[in-house]
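Reagents: none. Just compute today. 3-methyladenine DNA glycosylase AlkC.
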Amino acid sequence: MTMEDILNRKGARRAADVPEAVLQLLNEGAIPSVNLTEWLLIDHVKLLTRNFRVLGLEETWLETVITAIKTAVKPSAMSTIKLIGTSLPRACTYPEKHVELLQALISHPSDSIRCYAPYLIAAHEKWTLREKLEQALPLVADPNFGVREVVWMALRPDVAAQLENGIGILESWTSHTDANIRRFTTEIIRPRGVWCKHINVLKEKPEMALPILEALKSDPSRYVQDSVANWLNDAAKSQPVFVKLLGDRWLKESGGKETRYIVKRALRSIA
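Predicted 3D structure written out:
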């Protein structure tokens, strides 16, 4: 395969079909993954060993993290990324180092390395919630789906801990021109979510999120529409009347195809 072929690949569906040349470049951090199959195949020990100096990390840190990876019980790609990301603050011996490392991670060509960054942001003890979210904005808008998923998972506990403040900050993002950023505003506060702890207060009081939901009820992006509908479907499992009444009102106020699609998907569990 030529480099042009590699960069323009669609990605194999089966792990066994991923070309060796592609896997080698993925483990070197030279190219991003293009699908979940590739993302799950990446050897993070090889990836870190090849890139720790470029990132400005010490070899003693690397040895400690590699030991933790190799001794982890039932490791997965997601748990390994979290393990690495949450260990990074120990490598930041002075405040400037934290910012330098974060920029090195965010600008790296490997999406797997960029996935470490959200946990470094979440671990910063002196940043406010607004500062953490603003630092994460490039990752929220990342072209890679995996990075965008990791960033909401890493920052969700901070937002859940300051929910009213978080919703107020995220509401201002609902008018952003980037659909990835608009989608983030609902995905990070889904009441039940996926692979994460539920936000119980939103299961009981979904109306708290209305400033965000109302702003996106007619969003033109299907990516955003699905997230809004999934949010409401979560809420419908504990507050079905709220979701049904909201859907009825939205259809009366805005009968556009975008809103109709959201409401139909939102009510799928009730139906």
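The CA atoms of residues 141 and 181 lie 6 Å apart.
Action item: order primers for follow-up constructs.
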